[in-house]
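Deviation from plan, reported transparently: pyridoxal-5'-phosphate complex.
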Amino acid sequence: MPVSAATLRIDLNAIAENYRLIRQQAGGAQVAGVVKADGYGLGAVPVAQALMGAGCRTFFVALFFEAMALKPAMRPSDTLFILNGLHHGAEEACAQLGAIPVLNSLDQVERWGATARRLGRRLPAALQVDSGMSRLGLSPEEAEVLVSEPERLHGIDLQLVMSHLACADDDAAPFNTLQARRFEALAQAFPHVPCSLDNSGGAFLDRGHFDLVRAGIALFGGAPNTGPNPMKQVLELDVGITQLRHVEAGATVGYGCSYVCAQTTRIATIPVGYADGWSRHLSNCGSAYIAGIRVPIAGRVSMDSITLDVTSVPEEMLFPGARVELIGPHQSIDDVARDAGTISYEILTQLGHRYVREYLPARPAPLNRSNQT
Ligand SMILES: *Cc1c(COP(=O)(O)O)cnc(C)c1O
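Because the crystal trials were delayed, the predicted structure below was used instead.
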């Protein structure tokens, strides 16, 4: 490996531990792993396998092609839902794959029912109702149509009724209670079908969690809400310094000369840039760490490199190849997100493909805890 390569270490054991913590939070509810967008950028297959080892049997992806990629790595008894619903033209392929679409409209219900009749067998489905996101799912009026015309569900084996929270990361938001009430009322129309409302944030709300929690970001170490983060950090990203220089007071650094050195400054260049998911919004405001010492980003983030002001770092620690922490014990994904003006979800899903990825394996669960969901 060249000294300058950036290494992304993904701790599958931390993901398994986070899964177990969420299951404790969820009380009696089952906990599913949401591994859309290639497992939030960390690799859907290794992440799902680590979750299986921790007892997870239900998974969600967003798109049909994500289901195609993940299904072969799953056990036949595991369940895989497709959140974004039934893709036009993929109905029979979806049935054949054994992935379960989340039906988000009456049209999708109609097409899935027609597919079932054509194939001559009942097909499993989830149904999403909209309780306030106004994004995906049947409106309350459409849900009522389905209830008053149950023949529309002929051939469909409804396995889950679900909805999604808009403000779950804010445990004080009154909208959480409103959505839970609306969802309860909508779900009553399907009395024998398991219900799911909560994502990571929802799992940490102080109330019941229906039958199934759909956990994503918290598995990967992101804070589930605005309070102190109880999750284990999953990622370490570090990179070797490519080049070092002294620049004089008054010199500028990077594109647009946006950073002007107030004094003689030691600048280190690292080979990570916005093409690696290190947002340009971090120009002149993000940080990195060398041996625990904060080194601010000086100047604009380039496509393939970042310049750091390392003046405060002892000279003996500065040499080509010296390791710089971008994500790790001193800087969480939520820290990076705050500096970039975004959320940890976006930091994770933008992580680039030029990193050397190393997976630290999951260990078996401690014996005093049940391994079953
Ligand atoms: C992405 C997603 C989740 C997971 O949300 P997190 O906040 O990452 O836990 C759950 N449900 C739906 C419908 C989603 O789109």
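The two ends are 40 Å apart (CA to CA). We consider this an acceptable substitute for the interim report.
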